[in-house]
Design a protein that fits this description.
Length: about 425
């Protein structure tokens, strides 16, 4: 038997096929050695040798015999998702959701705690690190090691360096080396991204967008932001600022001042913060008797009060949600015409309470977009808004660790533990 027949023309690249074989098993595209051979074009002996190497590294194991169509059944193979864990934390304006996930992105534990992102990076990250360390300490002594950390932040992040850049609601965070800090703290690579991008990634990997290629995730909370998926990949843009649609100017009114300092931004007229302010004003000046009865001794109302008012048929509240939905819908219609997504997922605190708002968003998108662009367009609500960002943060770490650029750098060691610099590899 000629060796060249088994190694073929790829025999000179020993590392690339190892990563390729691992990915076929990990992504569940191949469950048996023969199938790996078919999909990779590698010879039988090479496949057997590579699988043996992956088993020795603890990344793959033999399972029961796979179903066979005749002849000797092939042993099935499975990726050992329990070989390591990733730490994940999604930081919002007022809370952090943190968890520990296995290498398939499945969480064994999550916790949510109040924080105030405006307190600055020192206290917020110290609390986040403590939360993660407490969850790690509560595990059994023989629990798998940490392979990486993923962090979501409620502002623009320069993805290549893992630093927030001029975030409007995060005083003291501009340029703060979040990646470097978490990486040093846990001795593993760390990746940082905008929280809405991570919600989009969570939906793409393990949510409603799994079968889609072109997706918009729109978060309507206090502010408004979008995560874009193009051709099955998260679209960061040149610097990582893609999707910051909350600060598109939609009105030319000197009275609409945004927290970013500019005038007429979408979130300053249609976001949850703006809706709360308008509800409070209407309670005090008599435009809404329902809200006036609600406000009592409170100083301010929120979009949740407004949603209840709308449910009770309060005309002011209904009109306000309809207006908000029209502004958001027009912005989304521009995106639909520009980039033709097949799915728009709407999440965030305001979306979960405002049925009137969602109806208005939908109607505006369909009436203002090109017929061809909306022919197969689905518009839906996020079903797991509470955890999808933290899930996305874990998925980001897994995607990055197993990327074609990084996998060859650690696979011979069996894990990326002790290699925090991996995140700096482009
Ligand atoms: Zn703004």
């Amino acid at each position: 038997m000629a060796i060249s027949a088994d190694f073929g023309e790829r025999g000179t690249e020993p590392f690339a096929p190892l990563g390729e074989v691992l990915d076929l098993i990990r992504c569940e595209r191949a469950h048996t050695r023969p199938r790996i051979g078919e999909l990779s074009g590698l010879g039988r002996a090479v496949v057997a040798q590579r699988v043996g190497q992956l088993i020795a590294l603890g990344l793959v194991e033999d399972g029961p015999a796979a179903a066979s169509t005749g002849g000797r059944p092939a042993r099935s193979l499975r990726f050992r998702a329990e070989a390591g864990v990733v730490l994940s934390a999604e930081l919002g304006a007022t809370s952090v959701t943190a968890g520990i996930a296995d290498l398939s992105g499945r969480f064994s534990v999550t916790r949510k705690e109040p924080i105030s992102i405006a307190d600055g990076p020192e206290p917020v990250l110290r609390r986040t690190e403590q939360l993660l360390a407490d969850m790690l300490a509560a595990r059994q002594a023989d629990a798998p090691p940490v392979w990486g950390v993923g962090i979501g932040l409620p502002g623009p992040v320069e993805f290549a360096t893992g630093r927030p850049i001029a975030p409007p609601i995060m005083p003291g965070w501009d340029g703060y080396p979040v990646r470097q800090r978490l990486s040093s703290r846990f001795g593993v690579p760390c990746w940082v991204d905008n929280e809405v991008n991570l919600m989009a990634l969570g939906e793409l990997r393990d949510g409603q967008a799994q079968t889609e290629q072109d997706v918009i995730f729109l978060k309507i909370g206090t502010g408004i932001g979008a995560g874009l998926v193009s051709r099955g990949q998260l679209h960061h843009g040149a610097q990582g600022a893609a999707g910051d649609v909350g600060h598109v100017q939609v009105v030319d009114d000197p009275g609409v001042v945004c927290r970013c300092g500019k005038l007429g931004c979408l979130e300053a007229i249609a976001g949850g913060g703006a809706l709360g302010k308008m509800a409070t004003a209407a309670a005090h000046d008599g435009r809404s008797p329902w809200l006036a009865s609600r406000v009592g001794s409170r100083t301010a109302l929120t979009s949740v009060d407004l949603a209840e008012a709308a449910e009770h048929g309060d005309p002011f509240a209904v009109a306000l949600f309809e207006q908000s939905g029209r502004y958001i819908g027009r912005m989304l219609a521009a995106l639909v015409n520009f980039y033709n997504p097949s799915l728009i997922i709407i999440g965030g605190g305001v979306s979960s309470v405002g049925d009137v708002l969602l109806a208005s968003v939908r109607e505006t998108i369909y009436s203002r977009s090109l017929p061809l662009a909306t022919r197969d367009l689905r518009i839906t609500r996020s079903l797991r808004a509470e955890v999808i960002g933290a899930e996305g943060a874990a998925r980001m770490v897994i995607d990055e660790l197993f990327s074609a650029a990084r996998l060859p750098l650690w696979i011979q060691n069996g894990s990326p533990v002790g290699m925090p610099h991996l995140a700096d590899v482009a």
